[in-house]
Amino acid sequence: MNKVIIFFIGLLFYTAVWAISSPLDLLQNTSNQLISALRQNQATLKTKPQVVYRIVDQILLPHVDLVNMSSRALDRNAWLSATPEQRQAFTQQFTILLIRTYASALAQYTNEKVSFLPLRGDFNNLARVQVDSSIIRESGPTISVSYRLMRINNQWKLYDFSVDGVSLIQSFRSQFADELQQRGLDGLIQELSQHNMQNG
Fold first, then answer.
1. Is position 167 within any domain?
2. Is the alpha carbon torsion for 93, 97, 103, 104 positive or negative?
3. Which of 30, 56, 170, 197 fits 60 for a cystine, CB–CB 3.0-4.6 Å?
4. What pTM was estimated for this model as a whole?
5. Secondary structure (DSSP) of the chain
6. pLDDT by residue, tens only, the chain of 200 residues
7. Angle between helices 168-198 and 84-106 (to 10 degrees)
8. Which of 171, 200, 189 is CA-nearest to residue 103?
9. Is 60 domain-assigned?
10. CA–CA separation, 101 vs 171, rounded Å?
């Protein structure tokens, strides 16, 4: 998943405190706010990564179900058999990986726009929804992105999304599979920790 595509991940993560509403309205609102913030800081996005780190850390993370994302990024048996300490350690390193990935992508912002498709069905009676959108670029083809959200404590939170049909969580799970099989969960956690330190 290249940086251009990864950028679009971040379009959904910038949000103020938001009472439960239509998931579509939520995503449109957050997308508009993020684009506004990126434009305001566009001159320093590439030279001051801490600006983007701050946006992701302070605004993105409170609105993403990190534990759910972390559990889905692992083999199901690996998560279920992990100790609470292992789950916490993996979630911590996985969160850092997400922050660095999003920050790197957001720094490449070049006036992309998002067009959301109408939400089908009655979301008020659902615990999970999918919202589809198209990413419109100044050059290059339009990219289809689908977002999966779940209702948690009267708030919609993102737990996965797909770019042109490829799930973020499935992509991470595939990347982690070999390390998990060869070295186990502790080995994977150590590998992520080293990677995060080298790319900090």
1. yes
2. positive
3. 56
4. 0.80
5. --HHHHHHHHTT-------S--HHHHHHHHHHHHHHHHHHTGGGTTT-HHHHHHHIIIIIGGGB-HHHHHHHHS-HHHHHHS-HHHHHHHHHHHHHHHHHHHHHHHTT--S-EEEEPPPPS-GGG-SEEEEEEEEE-SSS--EEEEEEEEEETTEEEEEEEEETTEEHHHHHHHHHHHHHHHHHHHHHHHHHHHHHHHT-
6. 554 455 555 555 443 333 457 888 888 877 777 777 778 877 887 788 778 777 777 767 777 899 999 999 998 899 999 999 999 999 999 998 888 877 777 777 777 888 999 887 777 788 899 999 988 878 778 888 898 999 988 888 999 988 888 898 999 999 999 999 999 999 999 999 999 888 76
7. 90
8. 200
9. yes
10. 13
Answer yes or no: is 198 within a domain.
Answer: no
Domain-embedded: residue 200: no
Beginning with the edge strand found earlier in the chain, give each strand of the sheet holding 128-136 in spatial order.
113-116, 128-136, 143-152, 155-163, 166-167
Residue located via tokens 């993102």: 158
What is the CATH classification number for the domain harbouring 102?
A: 3.10.450.710
Q: Which domain holds residue 97?
A: 3-191
